[in-house]
Each structure stands twice: as C-alpha cells, then as structure tokens.
Amino acid sequence: MDYKTVKKEAPGRGEVEILAETYEAGEPVGEDAGRWRQKLESRDEKLRYLESGERYWYSDDWFGSEKRKNPA
Amino acid sequence: MAEEEKISKSIDKASLELIEKAAKDGVNTAFDRADTMKPCPIGAVGSCCKNCGMGPCRVPLPKGKEETPEDKLKRRGICGATAETIAARNFIRMVAGGAAAHSDHGRGVAELFLAVANGKAPGYEIKDEQKLLQLALDWGIEIGDRSNNEIAIDIGEKALAEFGKQEGELITLRKAPLKRQELWRQQGISPRGIDREIVEIMHRTHIGVDQDFKSLLKQGVRAAIGDGWGGSMIATELQDILFGTPAPVLGKANLGVLEEDEVNIIIHGHEPLLSEMIVAAAQEPEMIELAKSKGAKGINLAGMCCTANEILMRHGVAIAGNFLQQELAIVTGAVDAMVVDVQCIMQSIQTVAECYHTKIITTSPKAKITGAIHIEFDEHDALKSAREIVTTAIENFPNRKGNIYVPDEQTVQIAGFSHETINYLLGGMFRASYRPLNDNIINGRIRGVAGVVGCNNARVKHNEGHVVMVKELIKNDVIVLTTGCNAIACAEAGLMVPEAAAKYAGKGLAEVCETVGIPPVLHLGSCVDNSRILIAATAMVKDGGLGDDISDLPVAGAAPEWMSEKAISIGQYFVASGVYTVFGVTWPTEGSKEVTDYLFKDMEDMVGGMWAFEPDPIKAAHLMIEHIDKKRKALGIDKARERVLYDMEMRREMEAA
Ligand code: SF4
Ligand code: SF4
Fold first, then answer.
1. Tens digits of per-residue pLDDT, B26-74?
2. For an engineered disulfide with B451, which of B90, B242, B557, B560 has Cβ 3.0 to 4.6 Å away?
3. CB distance from A47 to chain B under 8 Å?
4. Is B150 on the interface with A (CB under 8 A)?
5. pLDDT of residue A22 exceeding 70
6. B295: confidence class by pLDDT, cuts 50, 70, 90
7. Where in chain B is the domain with CATH 3.40.50.2030?
8. What is the band of B7 on the pLDDT scale with cuts at 50, 70, 90?
C-alpha cells in the first residue's frame, strides 16, 4: 500500500511532512476479507471470546457503568 | 413530463430515468398516483375513527380559528370518544401493525430454526455456533458437551414460547441496560408475551374499552418494546445463527446492478429464509447451464428493500433499490422474475409487470397477489422451491420484449456492521470493545451517534430526506448507524465507503473513520436489525463513561421518509429505550394537541426518550444535534469539543505564570 503524506505546521519546527490517511481505498480484497468470526474455531475459543469480547454480558471481568472500579 | 415535475420526484438519476421511461411506456407508478391522490387531511392527522359500524366518525380541528372549550366538547365520535382517544387509538393500532409484522417475521424464523434443529429442514444448517452459544448463555440453556442441534432445539422452543407468554417478562429484555430494565418494571411496561401486548392493543382500541389517551399510549409503548427487544431481536439473533452474523462485505447498489444480458432475478420483501436458498440455487452449475441454453450469459441476483439488506449483509448480493424503486426495476424491462415474500410489496408491481415480461412470484402463504404466480416456500424442501423459482425466471428470459433500458448508476458499499463486528473492529480479537468509540465521544472527535432508519414515502422526493439528513449529521461529527431503506439510500449516495469520511464527515469523525477504516455511515441491516442498534447503544452504556442508561447517551434516532406502521413501532421502541426520535413527512396524531404534546414532551418523564416531528431534514438533523449536545452537557463532556492544543510556547508561558 502506498502511504500518503500531508504537510502540517509543527510548533517550533515549521512545516513537516506526516503520514496521512492509512486506509486503502474502500474495497477489501477477496471474499473472506471481512470474515473475522471464522478465525475462532473450537467451541472453547468461541466461549472465551464471548467472555472477553462480550464481557459486559458474559463475564465479571470488566468495569463500566454497571460495575464501577470505584463504586460511588 | 415537464423537467421540473420530474426532478421533484427523486434525487437519484437512475430512478429519474426510469420514471421517464415509465411515462413513455404508459406505465402508472406510485410517483404518478401520489400526484393524483392527495392524502385525506382528516385521516392524516389521526382524527378519523372507523372502529365500529356507527362510524366512520371524523373529528377534525376547526379550520382557521382557535378551538373553544365548548367546541372541543363537541369534537367526539358517536360513542363519545374524544379526539384524544381517537388519535391515540389510531396511533397505537399503527404500533400494533408494525410490531405484528416484525414479530410474525421473528416467529417464522423461530419455526424454521426449530425445524433445522430437529433435522427437518434440509439445506439449512447452523452457520454461527458462536451466536448459538451466546443465546444459550443469554437464556440459561445448558451448553456442556451437548451438540449444536440439541442446544438449538432448546433455543428454538424457548424463542417460540416468548410469543405466547402470558405473564412475567420477555427473556430478551435481559440484554438491556440494568437501569432500563428497572425503569420498564417500575412503569409497568415490560412486555409479557410478544403476541399478548399486540392483542391487548386491538382489545383496548375496540369501541368502548380504554378511553384514556395516556393509558392507550402506554400500552403502545409496551407492545413496541415487545417488538424491538422481543420479536425483532429474536428474528435477528436466530437469523444470525442460521445464516451467519454479518461481517464487513463489499456490495453494490442501485438499478445499474441489473445486467442486460443475464437472467435478472430480484428478491424483494423481508425474510431471508427463502432468499438464502435462492442465492444457493442460482449458483448451481445446472442452473447456470440452463440460463446459457436460453441465450443468457448467466444469472444475476439482486435484492430490494429489506431482503436486499439481509442478503447483502451476509453474501454481498447487490441491492437494486429501496421501496420506491420496486416498480422502476420492472420498468427496465430486464427483470425476468421478481420474487416476493412479505411486507412493503406494492400490489401494483403485478400491473407494471403485465406491461413488460416480468413474472411476479409470491412465496408466502400469508402474502398473495392477484394475478401473480404463487410458488410456496416449503421449509421442509426449500431448495426445491428455490430451484423452481430460478427455473421460472430463466425460462422467462427469452420472453423479453426488447424495450429494455438499464441505467448505468451503481455505487460500491461496505456493509455488514453487526454489533459483534463493530465491537471487534473497535477493539480487536483479544479485547473487543466499544471503548474507542466511547473515548472518542468523550474527547469530542465524535459528537454523538444517530440511528437513521426507515422507509421511502411517495409524498416526498425519493431519498432526499435520507441523504440530506445523514450528510448533515456526519458533517457535524455524528456517526450514523443505519438500516432499512435509509441504508439503501445512503449506499446509492456513496456514503458507505471509508473514503466518504474524508469527503463528507467533519474533521473529528473523519479522523476516527480513517484510523479504524470504517465508513461514517454503518450499515446494520434490515428493519428487524434495528435491534442491533439497541444492542450497540447498550454496549456503549455498559462500557462506561457515558452515563448509566441509553437515555444518558449523546444519541438520537430518525426516520426522515417513514411511511410504514413498522416505522412507527420502531420509533416507539427507540423512544421507549430512551432515545430522542425525529420523524419526517407527516405526523399521525396532529389532530390532537394533547396526544401530540404527550408523545413529544411528557413521554420523556416516563421513559427518558421522546418523539419529535420535523419534515425539513436539515432542521431535523439539527434537532438531533441539539439533543446530542444537551446530553453531552449533562454528562459534562461538552467542554471536550472546544479542545485547545497547547504548543510549547504556550506551555512555557503557563508554567511561568
Ligand atoms: S368507535 Fe366511536 S368514534 Fe369510532 S367509529 Fe365507532 S362510534 Fe365512531
Ligand atoms: S424501511 Fe420501510 S419501506 Fe423500507 S423495507 Fe423497511 S418498512 Fe419497508
């Protein structure tokens, strides 16, 4: 992928060249490009993913609005 | 047709070209009928009742003068029902119609699901084990060493039981934020069974039953929750298990996806049950050979309305158009069959089809059309039904009449943003999370989130409200989650590719989209998939930093071109979930100030969300943005938007001071 750059003013350093957008234009290549769920194969892996990725519903290992780190 | 008159009908070039072709071909479409048939001004504002044989009773507001209390007393039906009762009854009957449509779809999916689990629906299988396990955990179903089918039998039976449950509350409500569940309980609006709440609306709105508009509206809220958090959610979850949870997929949109030299089959309607099989049948080598033997180069499938969204989200099948493009697709003269199931199918497609060679094929025992061919979907042998349909289309190819025009217009889109996929894209495989979204809302790069959904409406310019509103929102750094015909309009306008962020979004939102590699408008699926928006909002709440409930979030909802009863049910469950929701085009309770005020103001006290009506899409977008800003202020994150970037000079000055 060709990285694009843009010129920006940096405080004290004048104009500098920095990395611009880092995505490739819109089209994922190959039919399976977006199919992330298939990476999880065994039932165990799938359950473990639920416990971490969807932890708000399937695990106690998280903090958030309904389980505060420092209860009010 | 005069140029001005024509361009007032759609913002989409392909549609305009085909509206013109229809006129030349002498074909009457919804666009013409909307010109000749004006809406009844009394019915439009909910001031007409025909719930018994003494009516219809019409109770319009007096024209051009303030209503006196004496006049108001007289504004009643024969049975004495006031204008308030009549408006509220009409409104919640719309909710009932919409909730019934979504939920009956859910029931159909649950029935097929159970048949699959029992090995009685060959051709189908459980495609997403993870979602199956997820539902088992949600519903307290034992996993252990049981097979997927054993687990699925329990899930299917439990899902079906939710429809006829008589007491308690729906099992699916447990997904909602804890505070929201509690609020629903306190207010007495947690739905018991999905069907029960709908039936109760029909009972209460019968002559001489519930005659207190607040009490009526409350039942509407209860039934709508049973739709969004019940019937629709069950449909989405079980479809994901059977057909796969959507993940990013590339697709195309607009009438230009039709191919002049291929057999074109349009799958139109809502349920993905049969269409999944048609997708499979159309790829079979024998079918492709048959098509070639008839002179076609191949078989081209395209979707329409929500069936389109379903098969796009899971297979990348192209979308031919949204609600108001269904007749126009046939006007191309290149559609060999239009296969329909339920909901949003205009009866006139049959009449339009008779002017060309298109075969209209109905497939649901619930939805037949006079004059159309009926090939019933048999879940016990779905592939057979699908093959019969594809064969009918192929055999019709040589009957084309030569009067063919397929517009060039087609756009590219990335779809497939289920809650699970958004979570994964934001956080990655090892710690999927909404944290980056919440953080970017807190730091002000993203101002808020809008759910923009709903139909087309022939009373307004096709797709204009959708596209203008969504562009205005993203320009103001509001990320848009979309479903239904809005999603199709956004795809046709090129808003669903990552590059659209740089072109149309505000600086903050564009930065986030570029980093994550997502479009500024995320396609979450079909109408029943609005339940995905509810889950996404819940995940935002649970992740923390943005309040304790959906009503605390800087979010808003809209349906700028709504027309269906389903849209009213969706709007009502968004509101019941704590979301400020703006509808365009027309408002069905304007005949009663009390009822309208209650929906637009007082409902916020009950559920933390409320309705609004604004036909101008830019103004409506700004109402949403104002609401988002109000919520940001309440959360104390309004200042974050006015970030000052200190350079070293400024820092030194501060330190010296
Ligand atoms: S229910 Fe009452 S208001 Fe409605 S049609 Fe009958 S008499 Fe008229
Ligand atoms: S968004 Fe409205 S018009 Fe479109 S398919 Fe859904 S209900 Fe029908």
1. 999 999 999 999 999 999 999 999 999 999 999 998 888 888 888 888 8
2. B557
3. yes
4. no
5. no
6. very high
7. 255-399, 448-635
8. low
B542 touches A at CB < 8 Å: yes
Q: Is B60 on the interface with A (CB under 8 A)?
A: no
* CA-wise closest residue to B471 among B595, B406, B396, B560: B560
So what's the pLDDT on residue B482? 96
The closest CB to that of A26, out of B316, B431, B499, belongs to B499
* Cα–Cα dist B494/B471, whole Å: 11
The whole-angstrom separation of Cα A7 and Cα A18 is 6
Q: Give the domain B448-635 fold.
A: Rossmann fold (3.40.50)
Q: Say whether pLDDT at A21 is over 70.
A: no
Q: Residue B439: what pLDDT? A: 92
CA of B341 to the centre of ligand 1 (A): 34
Extract the tokens encoding B511.
Answer: 């930065």
Kindly give, in sequence order, each residue whose CB lies less than 8 Å from that of residue B201, ignoring residues fewer than 6 positions away: B92, B93, B95, B96, B219, B220, B223
Please judge whether B412 and A26 are an interchain contact, meaning their C-beta atoms are less than 8 angstroms apart.
Answer: yes
pLDDT for res B212: 97
Say what angle helices B419-427 and A43-53 make with each other, to 10 degrees.
80
Indicate where chain B has its CATH 1.20.1270.30 domain(s).
83-243
Angle between helices B565-576 and B213-226 (to 10 degrees): 90
When comparing pLDDT for B275 and B588, which is higher? B588
| Contact list, B250 vs chain A (CB under 8 Å) | 27-28, 33
Residue A33 banded pLDDT, cuts 50, 70, 90: low
In this prediction the pTM is 0.91
Q: CB A47 to CB B138 under 8 A?
A: no
Q: Judged by CB atoms within 8 Å, which residues 495-524 of B form the interface with A?
A: 497-499, 502, 514-515, 517
pLDDT classification of B650: cutoffs 50, 70, 90: low
Give the CATH number of domain B83-243; options: 1.10.10.10, 3.40.47.10, 2.60.40.1180, 1.20.1270.30: 1.20.1270.30
Q: Which residues contact B197 (CB under 8 A, 6 or more apart)?
A: B99, B191, B219, B222, B223, B226
pLDDT for B640: 63
User: Peptide bond before B56: cis, by omega within 30 degrees of 0?
Assistant: yes
Report how far apart the first and last C-alpha atoms of chain A are (Å, whole number). Answer: 49
Is the model's pLDDT at A24 over the cut of 70? no
B255-399 topology per CATH: Rossmann fold (3.40.50)
Integer angstrom CA distances of residue B93 from B77, B345, B444: 17, 21, 41
Judged by CB atoms closer than 8 Å, whether chains meet at A11 and B134 is answered as: no
Q: Name all residues whose Cβ lies below 6 A of ligand 1.
A: B 49-52, 54-57, 77-79, 81, 86, 207
Distance B42 CA to ligand 1 centre (A): 15
Q: What is the mean pLDDT of residues B146-159?
A: 96
Flag if B134 and A50 touch (Cβ within 8 Å).
yes
Among A27, A51, A56, A63, pick the best mutation site for testing chain B contact (most B Cβ within 10 A). Answer: A56
Distance from CA of A24 to the nearest CA of B (A): 8
CA distance to partner chain B, nearest, from residue A72 (Å):
12
Is residue B276 very low, low, confident or very high in pLDDT (cuts 50, 70, 90)?
confident
How far away, in angstroms, is B80 Cα from ligand 1 center?
8
Q: Which residues line ligand 2 (CB under 6 A)?
A: B 305-306, 322-323, 344, 454-456, 484-485, 527, 564, 566-567
Q: How many residues does chain A have?
A: 72
Residue nearest to atom 2 of ligand 1 (CA): B79
Percent of chain B with pLDDT over 90: 84
Beta carbons of B526 and B483 less than 8 angstroms apart: yes
Q: Is the pLDDT of residue A66 over 70?
A: yes
**Stretch among B358-362, B584-588, B641-645 having the lowest mean pLDDT:** B641-645
